[in-house]
């Protein structure tokens, strides 16, 4: 196996399993750990993985995106804390957009049930979570359903969303960086997110620390467009400060 084949095998394993370990990869490919570290360094330079202590995990891109089912198994405790903290920022909002994805789904579960609320979403999962909330009206955007994320996209969704003026939008992304802003792999998803940003008076990003510094294919917003960023303490405080200098309040929970 040559170098390119090994690196492709490493990337395929990372995308299949969600992460890779240097020691296990060295055993599998029968090479030195330092060789694997160099491979991971190259893959990181190409924007395909993010390195961690002892391994790496895949970066979502135009050619790779995790499914909603996969997202429900990773960083669950952190996502739950993030969702609870984000829901507390609702203030006096009466109309709320909740994005697709597992963390926004947890935000929906944490929204107050004791007051009148209208929730707009492209996510079938979010709509299902809120369907039995007596004081919550749910408006599900129409469109083509993406099987991996169970959310609607395309012009039906964006046209419907463009007709609303929304008090608060809870936005997710596959990556957030100070240089490139908020990004996602799929252009159709990007359009829905961009329209949600335009339609909302207030915008809050929710996402675990692994999203930070990651860059995907389609850019739909700048960090400065956000009122707040809610993440976990895995994001170093110094890096949180750098993001806050761009405008939003950064909350680490």
Automatic annotation (TrEMBL):
It comes from the Bacteria. InterPro entries: Carb_Metab_HTH_regulators, DeoR-like_C, DeoR_HTH, NagB/RpiA_transferase-like, WH-like_DNA-bd_sf, WH_DNA-bd_sf. SMART domains: DeoRC, HTH_DEOR. It holds the Pfam family DeoRC. Keywords: DNA-binding, Repressor, Transcription, Transcription regulation. Residues 3-58 form the HTH deoR-type domain. PROSITE patterns: HTH_DEOR_2 (PS51000). Signal peptide: none annotated. GO terms for molecular function: DNA binding. The keyword Repressor applies. Repressor of the lactose catabolism operon. Galactose-6-phosphate is the inducer. PANTHER family: GLYCEROL-3-PHOSPHATE REGULON REPRESSOR, HTH-TYPE TRANSCRIPTIONAL REGULATOR SRLR-RELATED. This is Lactose phosphotransferase system repressor.
């Amino acid at each position: 196996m040559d170098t390119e084949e090994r690196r492709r095998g490493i990337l395929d394993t990372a995308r299949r399993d969600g992460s890779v370990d240097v020691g296990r990869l060295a055993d599998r490919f029968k090479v030195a750990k330092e060789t694997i570290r160099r491979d991971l360094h190259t893959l990181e330079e190409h924007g395909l993985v993010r390195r961690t202590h002892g391994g790496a995990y895949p970066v979502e891109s135009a050619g790779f995106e995790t499914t909603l089912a996969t997202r429900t198994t990773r960083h669950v405790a952190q996502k739950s804390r993030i969702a609870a903290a984000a829901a507390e920022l609702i203030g006096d909002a009466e109309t709320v957009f909740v994005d697709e994805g597992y963390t926004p789904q947890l935000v929906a579960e944490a929204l107050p049930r004791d007051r009148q609320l209208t929730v707009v979403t492209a996510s079938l999962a979010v709509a299902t979570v809120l369907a039995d909330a007596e004081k919550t009206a749910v408006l599900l955007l129409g469109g083509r359903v993406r099987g991996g994320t169970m959310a609607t996209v395309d012009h039906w969704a964006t046209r419907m969303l463009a007709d609303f003026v929304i008090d608060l939008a809870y936005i997710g992304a596959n990556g957030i960086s100070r240089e490139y802003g908020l990004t996602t792999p799929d252009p159709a998803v990007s359009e829905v997110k961009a329209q949600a940003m335009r339609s909302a008076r207030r915008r809050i990003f929710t996402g675990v620390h692994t999203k930070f510094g990651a860059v995907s294919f389609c850019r739909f917003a700048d960090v400065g467009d956000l009122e707040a960023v809610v993440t976990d303490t895995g994001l170093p405080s110094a890096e949180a400060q750098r993001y806050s200098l761009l405008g939003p309040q950064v909350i680490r929970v």
